[in-house]
Amino acid sequence: MPHRVEIPADELQFTFSRSSGKGGQNVNKVSTRVTLRWEFGSSRALSESQKRRIASSPLLARRIVDGAIVLHEDRERQQGLNRKLVIEKLHELLDRALAPRKRRIPTKPPSGAKEERLDTKRRQSKRKDSRRWRPDREG
Length: 139
Fold this sequence. Notes:
Radius of gyration: 29 Å
Number of strands: 4
CATH architecture of the domain at 9-98: 2-Layer Sandwich
Strand order of the largest sheet: 1-2-4-3
Oligomer: single chain
CATH topology of the domain at 9-98: Double Stranded RNA Binding Domain
Mean pLDDT: 87
Shape: elongated
CATH class of the domain at 9-98: Alpha Beta
Number of helices: 3
């Protein structure tokens, strides 16, 4: 697992709103939904290459709004728990986005597969050749 990025607390912006989740009557009174906004482009915690990698990550593409990563959490009934969960979600997404990508090692097709492909081509060629009209043949 790659080294976890330590984000300074003053770079994270939190807003709270009413949750649509569980909580009964409490849902209509208490703002437990947490929205986290992190302007990663101006962060002191990332190198320039990490910022470029995050900006081009397909994993984070739909979560980047106006140059900031925006995440929401409303699973729990408590604001504090949702705040911890959204920070954990941010760290997990960053870990996955910044992890080194595995390179595919190209392999050769097996000789049996090559032979089968060429045999199929030969049979198709004979089939089409037999349909061709030739003056030396009847029909």
